[in-house]
Write a structure and sequence with these properties.
Layout (H helix, E strand, L loop, with lengths): L9 H19 L3 H5 L3 H17 L18 H11 L5 H4 L6 H11 L2 H13 L4 E4 L16 E5 L2 E12 L6 E7 L11 E7 L5 E6 L13 E12 L3 E2 L5 H37 L1 E3 L2 E2 L4 H31 L1 H30 L1 H4 L5 H7 L10 H22 L1
Helix pairs in contact: 1-4, 4-8, 6-7, 6-8, 8-9, 8-10, 9-10, 10-12, 10-13
Bound molecules: flavin-adenine dinucleotide.
């Protein structure tokens, strides 16, 4: 995306961030009770109106090149904006930069044919439809995604897809799924056996089995995580995305920026939790004349959170800068660091903020408990902590192992 990025002066960026901050706080935060109390059916129409406002304010699709209807922000500028939007669960959706659409837009932009871009990218960018990405299967360890059972077999001018997926986020109401399926089962190279294929929804044979209850919530719309089935689903051969057998290469291209995007959003959540924690600690009286904020333990939580959020932000900006200037390969290690560090920072900050709020922290009167439930998954999706740590350690140990073998 860097080639199409628009250079913003510091002043222009500051104006953009202030516009976003005002919009988030005056228009989006007041809607949070609808989400927190599960009034899902009411939310989407209201958010549709707010998407129009976001567009009018110049906050629409910030990561996409202007030629495709976006703001063309470079990744580091988008990091700052994403943090502002992450203050509320609605921010990214309303500005059309939420997962999984953001990843699918990047995929289609990079690998889609002109016909595919016209059919799926253009309406995604305009906000006329939503999409989902179906890779993980219940029968296999998602951490090792080469183990797939879903197949796509060529039959004349069509692909015929069979299989079962789960945790297909936002499938409920999506207009198409990008599906990872084995098309080349006999390739000796296991990373060249699968392809990505676009399946319009509905297509005969596609079934949304259920919205999975995650931490007690079924969600809905873009906040759903579905189990889906493909029974002899037939789509045109032209729905193949990129080259046949290159599904994992495409997935890697999608995951690098995707992980940075999540980390940027999590810092926004950290800042909101921090704000709530400080506000509450400063007003809650625990004894006559004594506030929670006077307690050393609470001060330590606040200080530790402040330090960790600052470190997380610097690490994310470093990864975003490497990605922008040197490409995904050069940024890979830094992306692994932030995926682990920011996900864990997020959980520590949310946990401290809940603890400071006492029983109130367990309620849905603040977004803390909602985020605590929803964002527990941050340590699992897009690579579980343990997988990233193994890769980081393996890389760090490599020269020592080689030296050990030589000695
Ligand atoms: C909220 C949420 C949204 C998601 N959205 C999507 C989506 O839109 N599309 C999609 O395709 N998938 C999605 N996923 C699935 C996600 O990508 C997988 O959950 C993830 O890849 C882990 O796979 P798994 O759940 O099968 O766990 P497994 O691979 O079975 O791993 C279980 C645990 O084992 C440990 N582990 C695994 N491998 C290793 C290893 N090599 N070394 C050390 N420890 C290891 C880790 O602790 C891991 O948490 C989503 C998941 C969640 C929770």
């Amino acid at each position: 995306m860097s080639g199409d990025a628009v250079a913003l002066s510091r002043g222009d960026l500051a104006v953009l961030l202030e516009t976003a901050r005002r919009f988030v706080r005056s228009e989006l935060v007041p809607l949070e009770p609808m989400l927190l109390h599960g009034r899902w059916a009411e939310i989407e129409p209201v958010l549709a109106g707010l998407r129009g406002k976001a567009r009018a304010l110049g906050l629409w699709a910030p990561f996409l090149p202007p030629a495709h209807g976006g703001l063309g922000l470079p990744l580091d500028a988008f990091a700052h904006l994403s943090e502002v939007l992450g203050w509320t669960p609605f921010g990214h959706y309303v500005c059309n930069c939420q997962a999984p659409d953001v990843g699918n837009m990047e995929l289609l932009l990079q690998f889609g044919t002109p016909a595919q871009q016209a059919a799926w990218l253009a309406p995604l960018v305009s906000g006329d439809l939503r999409s989902c990405f179906a890779m993980t299967e219940p029968e296999h360890a998602g951490s090792n995604p080469v183990m797939l059972s879903t197949t796509a077999v060529r039959d004349g001018d069509a692909w015929v897809i069979n299989g079962r997926k789960w945790f297909t986020s936002s499938a409920d109401g999506a207009a198409f799924a990008v599906v990872m399926a084995v098309t080349n089962p006999d390739d000796d190279r296991q990373h060249f056996r699968a392809s990505q294929i676009v399946v319009p929804i509905p297509t005969p044979g596609f079934t949304l089995v259920r919205n999975i209850s995650v931490m007690g919530e079924r969600g809905g719309g873009w906040a759903s995580h579905a189990e889906v089935r493909f029974d002899d689903v037939r789509v045109p051969a032209a729905n193949l995305l990129g080259a046949q057998g290159h599904g994992f290469a495409l997935a890697q291209e999608r995951l690098g920026p995707g992980r940075i995007h999540h980390c940027m959003r999590w810092i926004g959540i950290c800042e909101r939790a921090f704000d709530l924690m400080c506000r509450y600690a400063s007003q809650r009286e625990v004894a006559p004349g004594e506030r929670l904020a006077d307690k050393q333990q609470v001060q330590f939580w606040i200080a530790e959170s402040r330090i960790e959020i600052h470190a997380a932000r610097l690490m994310v900006l470093d990864a975003a800068t490497r990605m922008t200037h040197d490409g995904q390969e050069a940024a890979r290690e830094a992306i692994g660091y932030i995926k682990v560090f920011v996900a864990n920072t997020l959980q520590r900050v949310l946990d401290r903020a809940i603890q400071v709020h006492g029983a109130l922290g367990m309620t849905d009167d603040t977004p803390l408990a909602w985020w605590y439930r929803h964002e527990r998954a941050a340590r699992i999706y897009d690579g579980a902590d343990e997988v990233h740590k193994t890769v980081i350690a393996r890389r760090a140990l490599r020269p020592y192992r080689e030296a050990g073998r030589r000695s």
